[in-house]
Amino acid sequence: MLFNSVNFILLFLPVVVIIYYFLLKKHLILASKTFLICVSLVFYSAWNYKYLALLLISLLVNFTIGSSLNSDFKAKISSKTILIFGILFNLVVLGYYKYTNFVIDNLNLIFHLNISDKNILLPLAISFFTFQQITYLVDSYKKLTKEYDFLNYTLFVTFFPQLIAGPIVHHLEMMPQFNSLKTKVLSHKNLFIGTGIFLFGLTKKVILADTLATCANQGFEPNATLTCLEAWITSLSYTFQLYFDFSGYSDMAIGLAMLFNIVLPFNFNNPYVSLNIQDFWRKWHITLSRFLRDYIYIPLGGSRNGKNRTLVNIMITFLLGGLWHGAGWTFVFWGLLHGVALCIFNLWSRLKIKLNTFLAWFITFNFVNIAWVFFRSETFNDAIKIIKSMFGFSGFALPKFRHFDVYSDYIHCSDLVLIMLVLSFALIFLFKKNIDNIKPLLKPNWCTLIVFIAVTTLNILIIIRNTQTPFLYFNF
Asked: End of a domain among 163, 186, 209?
């Protein structure tokens, strides 16, 4: 089930909210939590019910391990050994489903073998709920967690607004909220703000990301031959598509959680206006950056063991970050590019030379845009072909994108004109508005309610007229 589906918006979500607050009104706290867990599992199963058992087994194993780490009972097995076992369990499960075919393909290539790929489908959200549970185990080992019951822990992991693609949350951010008295009372203010943020994210996805996708997908076709301008339009379309798609999902998740009086962490903060690559990673997918910093970079030694070791730790962190995004060498290379960029920035920072603001932004944005080409491309050859075109190796002729109709009966125009219009709107949307900007505007009044109805109607009409598209980060 998708956040951007009619069934979710008009049926699933209203029914869940109504029943949840009905149970709370009757002071059935345990029943309300159980209900929220059940609907979260139904939400997950709607995508592929076959992997529900995997999610439940993962929950049970990690809760058991976390409880043993939280316990003061002196076992024969050391806490460190238990922690290592727990981390390995999670990584082995993730590795089997996500990287088995990748390993087989490389073994075949290196040793000239003929091992057949396994028919393994990637379970939805496995990367996200795996990371989330690893943080719980590590923090349990450090005695930073409290003893929680299985019901609260299950709700922490399966809470449907953030289950599929984050934000990646800490137990300390979530579990206390589930027990707070504030979450057990209907808040009209939170309902209003949550709805507004959800619609904000939905608009990013349906109107901006999915429209930009038509141009990006066309340009990234393996057989596409692009001129210089076409290649830049293709890369920029994907750069903005990815941002609006994933930040739109994150906004929708934050808005949905607020409907239940739960506050999820901010995940994007206008990353494309960053003046350096370090600042970009402080603003892009903030909860993943936090995970990589707290659970990989710092345990490796961070910046504590000398300047050269700091650079090594940065490279390891981003190579692993690239591999986490996908089982392919293009993802690893994308991680390598960002690791190298951060190392260069680290060395540059030691010189204490400040670049002109526009030049700093121009370099950062274009590096990120070019790196996304490798992130999106199926093969290195496809990526190199587009980058060559971007730098004029395929000529400078005017674009010849196909004519097509978008939004069916609503708009008929060439996709080049459409994409340029959307990019212009996207720039305003991107540089001026985020969740913090719109919250003060979401005041409970008739004017705002009319805007909500109009925006909802527009989005639903577009969804009905076009094929629903999954969020890009469902692939990771």
From this structure: 186
Beta bridge partners of 412: 405
Tens digits of per-residue pLDDT, 272-292?
A: 989 999 999 999 999 999 999
Q: Are residues 261 and 390 in the same domain?
A: yes
| pTM summary value | 0.89
Q: For residue range 296-336, what is the model confidence (pLDDT) as tens digits?
A: 999 999 888 888 999 999 999 999 999 999 889 999 999 99
Q: How far apart are CA 240 and CA 387, in angstroms?
A: 17
- The total number of structural domains that make up the chain: 2
Map tokens 């490279």 to a residue: 315
52 half-sphere exposure, CB direction, 13 A CA radius: 14
DSSP category for residue 225? -
Identify the active-site residue in 171, 285, 325, 338.
325
Residue 336 lies in a domain: no
Tell me if residue 188 is catalytic.
no
Band (472; pLDDT cuts 50, 70, 90): confident
**Separation of alpha carbons 285 and 345, rounded Å:** 20
φ, ψ for residue 89, nearest 5 deg: -55, -50
Angstrom distance (rounded) from CA 282 to CA 279: 5
> Could you tell me the two tokens for 85?
């076992």
